[in-house]
């Protein structure tokens, strides 16, 4: 399907944060753009805001003044809705309210030409429900941009029950022509990103609630081992707890209170306290004048005279860590075994979702210390460790010393199932697998959405393939056993792929 050509006029209704950004994107792509807002002066203010943003680029020498003038010249604020009648694509980005959006769509249907496409930027309202009152719901499609629209590459093209395939394909092709990375999604709660990302916040919140460690340490582990841009607490402080908590509640309630999406009491309390994050100076962290962000818990230097690491069995994804230890001057001895490292009296193993205490008792392993997943063990600057209750202090110290010899900072956590990165990634992959099984989007589009919409270092399903579906399935099964909670039940597709010994892409 062809993209709309630049001769097609685009209309954007609602000139707030999103509408202004979308108008900028369309104008930068060469379209004439009508910008309308019911508030007097808001459309002009929206256009001025775009000019201000672009002026910064001109000042930095990244854009020519004449290009700025041309883009701004193409954005035309219009006072009356009637003036958008000849637009070929109308994108609404007004207040998130079903009835108000329905009324706007009814008005647009009456005044726009029969072949005009109507698109909604809603983040949480069903496109099917929005189309239900329309004469021709087949011409309504979701065109879900991310904030800030000019910078974020992802556009979810959301198909309601009645949306015509041709309409969705035209919007998809148009988004591509505008330099975006569009993905198709069916109109299900949270679409792709706002659904699949829930565990990213939920698992850190849960670990904080269970006093695994503090917020700054969890954030540091997610960044330095997981290679996510921000930890869950930094990110929710930035998003605003009112907004993030509302999205979680909306997804939870839309899925008939499936425990997988259970909101967090800690976040509820922050909202009740008015600690909304950066925007009002206090969230998990303080942001006022002179406020200092707390340091993550990092183990002091541990000494060990040991020089030999015995690698028992296949280290799997942790193989680059062995290489780092070798490069640090340690002697590596390989022999058969269950996939673990011995350093002096310490036995180190990658978490399989069981608590160290439970695993040590069940497998009869003395002095067990579990380590967390890293996105890339050859680069991770920090790793989380958790020791079994039965493990001696000397063994914990040896385990810390071993990682420190490889230049890895160690955060020692209380013994909780699945540690931090492993648990988060397993739950992200689980949610992604469930979304794929339910036909919300394709496997490739889900991974693309999580990378382009949230800057994840890797799509959760391709990450799961790298870890081995069997390992992810084990991790989830073990976490589910630990809590006896439905929240951690492995998704059917993950379970099936684990038994078929295949990945999502193979
Ligand atoms: N802010 C985000 O991060 C984000 C991200 C993706 C999608 N969205 C969605 O985009 C939409 C807009 O969000 P926003 O953050 O830009 O909101 P906003 O409050 O910044 O802007 C909304 C604008 O719509 C105008 N408006 C309200 N009712 C109107 C009507 N009937 N006709 C014309 N104009 C009207 C308001 O005057 C306001 O200027 C919502 O549906 C929201 O869910 C928001």
From TrEMBL:
Residues 190-287, 418-497 form the 3-hydroxyacyl-CoA dehydrogenase C-terminal domain. It comes from the Bacteria. Residues 348-417 form the 3-hydroxybutyryl-CoA dehydrogenase reduced Rossmann-fold domain. One of its GO terms (molecular function) is 3-hydroxybutyryl-CoA dehydrogenase activity. Keywords: NAD, Oxidoreductase. SUPFAM superfamilies: 6-phosphogluconate dehydrogenase C-terminal domain-like, NAD(P)-binding Rossmann-fold domains. It holds the Pfam family 3HCDH_RFF. Residues 283-302 are annotated as: Disordered. One of its GO terms (biological process) is phenylacetate catabolic process. Residues 9-185 form the 3-hydroxyacyl-CoA dehydrogenase NAD binding domain. Transmembrane segments: none annotated. InterPro entries: 3-OHacyl-CoA_DH_NAD-bd (IPR006176), 3-OHacyl-CoA_DH_PaaH (IPR011967), 3HC_DH_C (IPR006108), 3HCDH_RFF (IPR041040), 6-PGluconate_DH-like_C_sf (IPR008927), 6PGD_dom2 (IPR013328), NAD(P)-bd_dom_sf (IPR036291). This is 3-hydroxyacyl-CoA dehydrogenase PaaC. It comes from Marinobacter guineae.
